């Protein structure tokens, strides 16, 4: 393999599972260096192989459904000890709510509980368990990259209230970086329009973006803490099928599905003359299904588009995956019929970056039910810990073998 270009070697290694990579490190010193020390390889391997899609009830659930991007189409599920609700996912971190607010990194096992009761704009939670789903769109979650190894998280709550002029709304913003809540000095007053139904805010290029029903976008910059309204219109007439607001390649993206074609639009010239520009057309995989009950697009990134389908012929729901590079559909996995139908999908890619504000680390012997439930979710999302342990043992064994060879060589000389 030494004669192959570096990028081609990486492409081959990206197709191997963790156990095989562990064995590869025993065969060659250059492989061991590439797999253990190259930060690019680690991050890219996690994004390709470690990425997954998970599904959880919008109303808080003890059940989490996990679907890996690659490998088997079998679905893994988990029952936690207490009910958890996912409010956001960004750069390998999760924003969770379950008997309190929590930010967690499943890969590093670090987390932090936050006191939401001291917030002015965080939605009121009367039963201490679930944030009403109608108000979850008011909560933005973002992770900033400080350098190659460090990140920081911010939670932004937005609330609209009646302005002085009839038919106008004034938006206020509140920020949490781990220690406390503080109100932003910036406000935005504009023509009234609600946020899109079940449309989560999107983080891209340093700003959180909320899509409104009139097609305009409310943007809040996390560095300057200034907000503005991006005036734009939908590229087509409103559809009965749910659209998807997302981000890819540092650009806001709008997935506009129809029964025959799924249109992908990118927002161009956001600061000067914002317009939705057609990027791709994808033939709908469920267009000819006669026994269809419902379908909707659930997730999108630079490599895949994911679509959920429910029909009379299959027990449970099918999640289809469209490979943008190969231009073809495939089955990603299945959601059992006993899972709640009113749920949210989240993309998750593990990150080993250190995050400012996440100080506590999970302890296996902790008796706190919140910690135990959090630990279970983390194990589900970052893979099988026994495989990681085996890979570590293989790396250790290969080092010992190298040391033994060197010692024997010295003895011969």
TrEMBL record:
Superkingdom per UniProt: Eukaryota
InterPro entries: F-box-assoc_interact_dom (IPR017451), F-box-like_dom_sf (IPR036047), F-box_dom (IPR001810), SCF_F-box_component (IPR050796)
All residue ranges annotated as the F-box domain in the record: 1-44
Listed NCBIfam families: F_box_assoc_1
Designated name of the protein: F-box domain-containing protein
């Amino acid at each position: 393999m030494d004669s192959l270009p570096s990028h081609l070697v990486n492409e081959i290694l990206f197709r191997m599972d963790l156990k095989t990579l562990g064995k590869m490190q025993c065969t060659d010193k250059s492989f061991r260096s590439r797999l253990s020390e190259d930060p690019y390889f680690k991050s890219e391997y996690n994004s390709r192989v470690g990425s997954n899609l998970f599904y959880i009830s919008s109303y808080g659930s003890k059940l989490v459904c996990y679907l890996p991007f690659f490998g088997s189409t079998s679905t893994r599920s988990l029952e936690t000890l207490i009910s958890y609700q996912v409010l956001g996912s960004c750069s390998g971190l999760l924003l969770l709510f379950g008997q309190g607010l929590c930010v967690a990194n499943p890969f590093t096992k670090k987390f932090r509980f936050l006191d939401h009761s001291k917030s002015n704009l965080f939605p009121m939670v009367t039963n201490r368990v679930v944030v009403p789903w109608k108000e979850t769109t008011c909560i933005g979650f973002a992770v900033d990259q400080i350098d190659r190894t460090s990140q920081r998280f911010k939670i932004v709550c937005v609330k609209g209230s009646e302005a002085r002029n009839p038919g106008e709304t004034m938006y206020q913003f509140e920020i949490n970086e781990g220690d406390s809540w503080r109100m932003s000095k910036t406000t935005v007053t504009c023509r009234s329009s609600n946020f899109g139904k079940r449309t989560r805010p999107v983080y891209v290029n340093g700003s959180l973006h909320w899509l409104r029903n009139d097609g305009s976008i409310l943007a809040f910059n996390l560095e300057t803490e200034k907000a503005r309204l991006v005036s734009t219109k939908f590229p087509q007439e409103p559809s009965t099928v749910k659209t998807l607001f997302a981000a890819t390649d540092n650009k806001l993206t709008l997935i506009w599905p129809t029964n025959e074609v799924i249109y992908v639009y990118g927002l161009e010239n956001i600061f000067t003359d914002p317009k939705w520009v057609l990027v791709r057309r994808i033939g709908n995989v469920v267009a000819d299904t006669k026994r269809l009950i419902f379908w909707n697009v659930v997730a999108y990134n630079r490599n895949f588009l994911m679509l959920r389908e429910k029909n009379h012929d299959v027990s449970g729901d099918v999640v289809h995956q469209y490979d943008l590079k190969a231009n073809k559909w495939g089955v990603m996995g299945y959601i059992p019929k006993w899972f709640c139908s009113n749920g949210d999908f989240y993309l998750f890619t593990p990150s080993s970056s250190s995050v400012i504000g996440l100080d506590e680390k999970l302890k296996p012997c902790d008796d706190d039910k919140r910690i135990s439930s959090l630990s279970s979710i983390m194990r589900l999302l970052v893979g099988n810990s026994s495989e990681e342990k085996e890979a570590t043992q293989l790396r250790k064994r290969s080092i010992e073998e190298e040391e033994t060879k060197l010692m024997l060589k010295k003895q011969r000389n």
